[in-house]
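User: Could you write out the 3D structure of this protein bound to aspartic acid? I've included everything you need below.
Assistant: Certainly. Input first, then the structure.
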Amino acid sequence: MNKTDYPSVLLIYTGGTIGMIENPETGALEAFNFDQLQENVPELKRFNYQILSYQFTPPIDSSDMEPDLWKKLVQIIQYNYDNFDGFVILHGTDTMAYTASALSFMLENLSKPVILTGSQLPIGVLRTDGKENLITAIELAAAKNNKGEAVVPEVCIFFENKLLRGNRTSKTNAEEFSAFHSYNYPSLATSGIHIHYDISKIKPMPENKQLKPHYALDPNISVLNIYPGIQEKTVRAVLETPDLRAVVMRTYGSGNAPQKPWLIRLLKEATEKGIVIVNLSQCHTGIVEMHRYEAGLHLLEAGVISGYDATLETVLTKLMFLLGHGLSSEEVKRMMVTNIVGEITIEE
Ligand code: ASP
């Protein structure tokens, strides 16, 4: 089959609920292979597309996802980049937002769609949400505009009926089919009878269309959740973690934390040692503004930087990406408050 005759999509199956099929004999849920997928989703044959697949062996529960597997995904995409119009990654829902965020930084100059999807019910179950998610994700991955370019040249999550920017998305529901939400950025498309794209919200095609894959990630980071009653020894244990390079501090409201002198002292000592501390609110909607209250101002004075309206998944993977590239603390801080791939809202 000649690539120019048909839209072509590479389906990368990593694992997760979507790929489970009930064994008719034992009743247990087992991971499928691509042939079984085609048997369970005969609709795939009705696409006039070339759909090929790559499968993780063994498929994983996405709780086992890790930076080395993100590098493997980047490698698969790099290797197959010129031969496909788009990529669909079938992924467990639990860490899908982390993978989507990481890939958005690792695939620089992306000019083709990379759509992650999965499901809440296995594809072999009668009421599955997996079929619709998979079929629409394939359509989105192959969609072109009248210039022959990809409509959505970015890393996205498609779930239920919404196409969301991957690095703006979090898993928010473990029960309903609508499992993901993007609090601080609108949907890129919605699917009903038709797929409606909001072109003004989609990342424009990069000027340089030469994919620049990145593989360096440094996971020496930690998360510090602030709560009433937090103890000095708890904060100290986090900030004195060996080899620590950065901390995401989850604060209250618009970025506020207790005004205890020991807390400010520990944070200041850490930032002076070159540890990057990013202030991210425990509220999902809204933006960190440390200058708004006294309880935020002292964090600014301790050298803490703002995570703006980013998701936790994005701040963690962006830090891994920047630190992995050997940047100094000052450079990391500067890039953390710079919008790289649509992950934060910065008023210019
Ligand atoms: N634990 C599964 C996973 O993330 C859940 C799912 O796929 O929805 O792999």
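The pocket of aspartic acid is lined by residues 15-17, 61-63, 92-94, 118, 120 (CB under 6 Å).
User: Perfect, thank you.
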